[in-house]
Each structure stands twice: as C-alpha cells, then as structure tokens.
Amino acid sequence: MNNAGLLLGRLLLGVPFIIWGALKLTGAAAFSGNLAKMGLPSPLALAYLVGFCEVIGGLAVVGGFALRSASILLALWCLATDYLVHFGNRTAFFDHLVMAGGFFVLAAVGAGAWSLAKDRTLGLP
Q1: Between helices 2-26 and 90-109, what is the axis angle to 10°?
Q2: CA 31, CA 54: separation in Å to the nearest integer?
Q3: Distance in angstroms between the alpha carbons of the first and the last residue of the chain
Q4: Per-residue pLDDT tens for 7-45?
C-alpha cells in the first residue's frame, strides 16, 4: 500500500501544478497583469517563468524524478505565495499551507517504488 499511497499523493499534489502552470503559460498576458499590479518586474517574462516552473515541478512530483528537490521547492513556493498573495483569504491560505505540508512529507519519505526515482526507498538516506 505504501507505493500506491505515494503514487496517489504524488498525483494529487503534482497534477494541479501541471494544470496551473499550463494555464499560466497559455494565459500569460492576463497573469502578467496580476504580477504587474503586485509591482513585480518584467511581469510577462515572470509569468512565463512561473508557469514553466509549475509545469516542470508538477511533472517531477508526478514522475517521482528529483522528487525531494522538487517537493521542497514547491513547498517553499506554496509558503511564499501564501504570504505574498493569499494572506487575506483564509481558505486559499490554508489550502496552500496543506499543500506545503504534503510536499514536505513527500520530500521526507521519498517517491516509492512506482516512480522514476533512482532512490526508491522510504525515509531519508
């Protein structure tokens, strides 16, 4: 059950990031408007960068490839967007907090056998 549970967890955490990243890439002009309102530099380039990172990070989590690095980066991403974007919205704030927790758990236990990971064992080396 551990491998099936890890695969399910990776899918539930990774697929939304793939979708969100793809939406940002296809709607980069609209998303860049939100980034511009936040006063961020080069909003269109940043929109493409964010979309690309979310797609790649989501794919890494789903496949279990470079899982620990991708999970830690996506967890930190969730915490950063929580603070910068979702702080005033309790529901979105806790949604991102929960996702960060899930990513940290994946980073701690590894990808499991049903993955592309070289290290398929549970637990830290």
Answers
A1: 130
A2: 14
A3: 21
A4: 999 999 999 999 999 999 999 999 999 999 999 999 999
